[in-house]
């Protein structure tokens, strides 16, 4: 096999691992934020809108690392190794 073929194969593997492993953390984080937010809303219904706003911001922050993993995965797919 040629050197560029190996580079292409490992680019695909790296991108797949980047997205696979990079999506686990944000999924767990968003799930935890949602569960705790719903528990807080169930306990105090009068502060429901405030909790909802904070919960959505926290979910966006937790999901940002998944977006970074997507960007890195796309860069790995389309980077030709300086060729």
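-> sequence recovered:
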């Amino acid at each position: 096999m040629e050197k560029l073929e190996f580079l292409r194969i490992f680019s695909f593997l790296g991108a797949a691992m980047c997205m696979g492993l990079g999506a686990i953390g944000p999924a767990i984080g968003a799930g935890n934020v949602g569960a705790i937010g719903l528990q807080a809303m169930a306990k105090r219904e009068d502060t429901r809108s405030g909790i909802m706003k904070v919960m959505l911001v926290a979910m966006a922050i937790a999901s940002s690392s998944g977006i970074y993993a997507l960007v890195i995965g796309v860069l790995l797919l389309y980077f030709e190794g300086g060729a």
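Residues 26-77 form one domain.
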